Batch of 4 targets.
Target 1
Amino acid sequence: MANPAPGGQNRLPLHVVMAFASTALPVAAIGLVMGVYLPRFFASAVGLSLAAVGGAFTIVRLIDMALDPLLGMAMDRTRTRFGRYRVWLSIGAPIVMAAVYMLFMAKPGITEFYLIGWLLVLYLGISIVTLSQAAWGASLATGYHDRSRVYGLIQAVGVVGAVLILLLPMALGPKAAGAAGVHAMGWFCIIAVPIALFICLSLTPERVATDVAKERVTLNDYISLVRRPEMARLIFADLFMALGPGTTAALYLFFFHDARGYSHQQTNFLLVLYIAAGLVGAMFWGWLAQKVGKHRALMISTVCYAISQSALMLIPPATMPLAIPGMISVGFVSSAFILIVRAMVADVADEVRLETGKERVGLLYALVTTTQKIGTAITVGISFTVLDLVGYNAAEGAVNTPAAIRGLELCYVFAPIILVFFGGAAFIGWKLDAKRHAEIRRKLDERDALAAEAGLLDAVAGASVAVQAPH
């Protein structure tokens, strides 16, 4: 299934990686609409207030952030003849489809409780799909550098999904304006989910470690993982790297249309370029992580993000020739954050399994997906509340005061820079590099081989062989 790579590590065939990454396409498309279009859709087309929309997203995220650890524990305990993560992926897909329909097709007159309820269902489905894919990827790709490659391709496929969802309203023309565009995006996602699921489940194998302990996963396991220095750093960094781009996603349409004077068509086009730049960026940052190490690549990306994000304020309003390279550079840089952190979590999972003999991949990924949810809750809730306090009016055709526009600009441009810098600082002095991980994988592979040999002897001769971890 895997081809040898330099350094003795296995390299997954490209067709396996692409099939596995296919589910990232609809998930990324849904995530983009949720972060950029859905808040505005409910605040303008559906008729809810900014405070109500921001409050709904915050409430849902605060409730939902406790869900991922429970899902991670359940995944780590799952044993079926169909595999562990493919079962969860199959459960999450129909939940996502139902919630997308109820939210993306919402009509004027719904209440905040309707929004909260179906957001909870959607986030449940998305959590199951993204968490099962992330944990499955850690067991699928075992090499330090191959993980950068695999998670980079997952990110790239997600970018394709985001670009397609952005191009859809543009392809449909004026009839897809406003609410009609969100409806079209909803149908795209509903159709894409089962297609991607079929491709992934049909072509992707699933590995299960031979030395996995069968005991229950408890709250103490969760606490012990959070207290690990490497994991604590990743959680902190992932939170702040989610807060930065999360703030810009929630305010993007308001910033470029109302504060910078671009038309709706120009705003959509700039967003397409921003997302599309992430396709090249994902490949570049995955490559750079293999050359200089994942933690160094992340620190470099935070500095580049600060430079490119600051440049947006230097561009004169309604100046497309300058806005185009500006948005491309920001999209290129910000594509590094999620993919490298996810690859680093897989390395920590190997270290945990070596030291404890326990498979905790699902729970480890639950920790970082929870930080993503916390980041989204804080950005949407706080940003929309601040805009409401400064008097910003989100209604179509509304005229805002200079003070309201200035508050919008400060929230969009400078707050994310500070947040992302905090995330990059977390990797100063990082120890789990390629050399350390190669030693961990060597010991795990030796132990797995001994365990397989012991199992074979047990089956053939009834012998009982004690397996000791190599030192």
Target 2
Amino acid sequence: MVAEHTAFPQYKLRVRQPKLCDPTVKQYSGYLDVDSDKHFYFWFFESRDRPAEDPVLLWLNGGPGCSSMTGLLMELGPCRVNAKGDGVVNNPHSWNNHANLIFLDQPVNVGYSYGRGVFNTVSASEDVYAFLQLFFQQFNQYASLPFHVFGESYGGHYVPAIGSKIFRENRQLLDTSSLVGQFWKGKGVQVINLDSLGIGNGLVDELVQYKYYHKMACDSSYGSVLSESACRRMENAYPACAEKIEKCYRYENALSCVPASFTCNRGIIGPYQESGLNPYDVREPCESGGLCYPIIGAIEKYLNRPEVKAELGADVEKYQGCNMNVNMGFNLAGDWMKPYMRYLPELLESGIRILVYAGDADFICNWYGNKAWTIELSWAGQKQFAAAKDRAWTMKPTEDLQVGEVRSHENFTFLRVFGAGHMVPYDQPESSADMIERWLSKRDF
């Protein structure tokens, strides 16, 4: 099946219905083709509960350059790959227990996606918006449902940019005095029912977050994991790093932002990388298999099986979990250090809910830095959010097991997840399932 949209003539949606991972629910997979240049892969799963009523959630992994199939087959999808990479097992804590899930491989050349490269977050958000318009036109039964954009790691860049793109396009479509909005509406462009954004262990505000790498490595609740000399190197590197990030924030171009990336990552992240520890979990050594987790290698093995690629309609010769050429492209474009948190105040002040959650054993996008930037974010509710108390997050069914801490004001929430690294749903699947069910149903933590 091929779907087109009159408002997006250069885009086409190729769709098939696979029966892998969770054959008990309806699935769609395929490609968003942009002329002959770019091809974005997606895999959709209906909710296990009430697909006609449950919200739609778009999931994006980070990198930049890492596939969202990692989120699907390692973290929150309906199944997980087995250790041998020759099959999958059911995930009882999948987020599609109460949501319709879309996993999208973006930007181009990530996972099953391929084509002419895109190396900045704003351009990537344009393609994601077009994908959503074609998807909701083709599958109109989901178009009026609440919509959520969630992402992990470099998703701290993607999610604010995509959320802002959707919000601003919606505003134009809803403005009866906007001739442009009415023109696009007449061509079938739909208002996307944006309800919330979610960022898990994200890279969002580098100026604040880089300050806390030293604390996570040398003074966290898990104890110091580096030598005194390495700790001093990290601490001493921050002033020069901060100076360059401030310049990047001021000019937002490659000339000012690339030096910030190289200075900060060499001086502050470098000493940790030299330790041989897992940057995604300070409790663990870095194992082989990709991103320090053997399961990443198992995912690559599974998604490169000929019968799996055929069932999913994958066009690429070889699936890669992470493409370091994409990563370097974003770095050289200066995208890494840009201040994407600046998209969030407008969304918060317009009533869009935002959840920031962080596993407290992660180093690379650690909870100290994530909590700090949420407190320092300049928006109408900043003073009240900063003054709010941290409360215990306890989990059902007993409600007496504390699994984290939560701080909220109005539609802004920060959640610390105990005992989880960078991939919260992988390390704490039950806590993760409780978190997403409460958030989607708008129940308090």
Target 3
Amino acid sequence: MTRPVGTPTRGTTNPNRLRRMDRWIAAAHGQALRRSDRPVAVDLGYGAAPWTTLELMRQLRTAAPRCEVVGIEIDPGRVAAAKPYECEGLSFRHGGFELPVAGPPTLIRAANVLRQYDEGEVAAVWARLCGRLAPGGLLVEGTCDEVGRRHVWVALGPEGPRTVTFATRLGSLDRPSDLAERLPKALIHRNVPGEAVHAFLRDFDRAWAAAAPYASLGARQRWIKAVRELAADWPLKDDRRRWRQGEVTVDWAALAPRSG
């Protein structure tokens, strides 16, 4: 057997930590999963316990009942601990970025995996994982806090990055730029003047401040108003149905880091 590619994560696996990401995946990618002859989703680097993999399977099966889920971990002890939870359509395997699965997966979720890597390593990992995707497949790579209140993730197809999604529990939000601490590795060091993601969060804070009168109607209405203002200057890729969930998705090209 070849040695798995990658290094172990910290392993934080609080239940429901990835619910916002999973909910978005089911909404955005459910149709592609249903169309697939054999929909397979990979949960890459699920951590010290299998809770988030089990939750991913339950969420995906609301959208695609035939979906199979494979949890992959580079730490063999974590795989052994997860084995008792295997059931029909759910398995756990020892591996890393080489993805020890038969055939190309329709979905790869890599949550809180690349945060420990250097920024310069991200593009190669993305390319490797995207190269394994089935036609029409999706890689979702991003970061969240320990209890799942704040997420930012990048969605990529076989051709590369497509969108960036910001998602939050609105009741805990002071201002949108609070999400900056959860930017994925490809963007977190680019939150500085002169970079697009910094300008986006600056404009989002301004729109949020301007929408303050809507706070009397609740945080959701304030968020929706702010996002509507943001849409005048930024290429948003979703609509009010997603905004109501405390989400906003932006075209990757608008936030991509400057070269150099």
Target 4
Amino acid sequence: MDASDLRRLALGLPETEEKSHFGKADFRVKNRIFATLPGDDTGVVKLTPEEQQMVVASEPGVFTPVKGGWGLKGWSQVRLAEADQTTLESALRMAWRNAAPAGLRKRVEGDAG
């Protein structure tokens, strides 16, 4: 995977917009950031600490916690070249759910069911 893949997959999620955060691309749902693209080979996703522990344990070559306090909150770095599409899609969906308002999540998950 690469930056264009992350962009394509993130923008495919409901009501996602691409904006900029400190000069880097970010992806938002209802103006809440759920992923960023700090470089061509790296993405960052907003996971819960529990989700972060799970993905780091299962895919240590792909995921690492962001350094500092943001990493303690679940923000996780993704090595895009090491990720396959299924893994990246799953991480982006988790991150999207963590940022999306409850009403939107309920409406989207109800549509999917």
